[in-house]
Design brief:
Number of domains: 2
Number of strands: 4
Shape: globular
Order of helices and strands: HEEHEEHHHHHHHHHH
Strand content: 5-15%
Structural class: alpha+beta
Largest sheet: 4 strands, antiparallel
Strand order of the largest sheet: 2-1-3-4
Radius of gyration: 21 Å
Helix content: 40-55%
Distance between the termini: 88 Å
């Protein structure tokens, strides 16, 4: 059988094999199949394989160089492609990284435990940076007919192109807040993190009690940033708004702790 026929056969298998197949990397059930190309090995979960490839750009099975990862299979010729970053971008050391060597093993451990005037872009990003700098989670809005906010589950997210599009829209802007990503080769690029986080949400509840989604995102953003980012994303995804500008105009935040202390001090002085 020639290479073309072999590749076609593997793609047919990737589209049809069941999720109970075990991932070669973590030995857990595959939730989103990924195919390493050009070798066409396909016994991987997407999250495991892309995490593996952040550390070494070779197939876990045959050690051949992996140039692309095919994923989100809907048919033999209907899939998406993630382009593996060049080796120069992924082998530089990362200062201060506490999980730089085995993110794919951490996944296995976790599973086992398991419109007004538009302001300038710089002003918007500075406001978003302040949210993370001050640790300000947006105020909760209940789900009802008046607010039009709607709760959703992991299964809802998995089945909804609209929710996935909104998530990508949010992440495309929100990840610009984290300047440290510019010097972090483990993150490879913000485009990679967008794909990665969306697949995390396809596999786990966004704010599940087990905290798995937060743990996986924290590998790249740190615990506090990951927790707040997921909180903010949940607020945006639950909202009825289709543009971030509209959401920006309505979302509300508590006063920073510093301001509250200043108000209490001023009140005591006048009292």
């Amino acid at each position: 059988m020639d290479d073309t026929n072999t590749s076609t056969a593997n793609r047919n298998n990737a589209a049809s094999q069941k999720v109970q197949d075990a991932c070669t990397i973590c030995l857990e059930p595959i939730t989103e199949r990924a195919v390493a190309t050009p070798c066409n090995h396909l016994s991987f979960d997407f999250l495991c394989l892309v995490s593996w490839l952040q550390e070494q750009s070779s197939c876990p099975l045959c050690k051949a160089a992996v140039l692309e990862v095919q994923y989100d299979w809907r048919g033999p010729d209907d899939y998406k492609t993630y382009h593996v970053p060049s080796k120069e971008d992924t082998t530089r050391p990362v200062a201060g990284s506490t999980h730089a060597h085995q993110p794919y093993r951490r996944r296995a451990q976790l599973r086992r435990a398991i419109c007004p005037i538009r302001p300038p872009v710089d002003d918007i990003l500075e406001r978003r940076r302040r949210v993370y700098r001050e640790g300000l989670p947006s105020l909760h809005i209940g789900a009802n007919r008046i607010s039009q906010y709607k709760d959703f589950t992991q299964q809802d997210f998995l089945a909804s192109d609209e929710l996935q599009t909104k998530a990508k829209q949010f992440l495309r802007r929100e990840l610009k807040v984290f300047d440290f990503l510019d010097n972090n080769p483990r993150a490879s690029s913000r485009d990679f993190l967008i794909v990665y986080i969306v697949f995390v949400l396809k596999s786990h509840e966004l704010r599940g009690a087990d905290g798995r989604a937060e743990d996986l995102v924290a590998e790249f953003l740190g615990r506090e940033n990951a927790s707040l980012l997921l909180h903010e994303m949940e607020s945006w995804l639950r909202s009825p708004y289709l543009s971030l500008e509209d959401w920006d105009g309505e979302v509300q935040y508590p006063a920073p702790r510093r301001e509250l202390e200043e108000r209490r001090t001023a009140k005591r002085r006048t009292g």
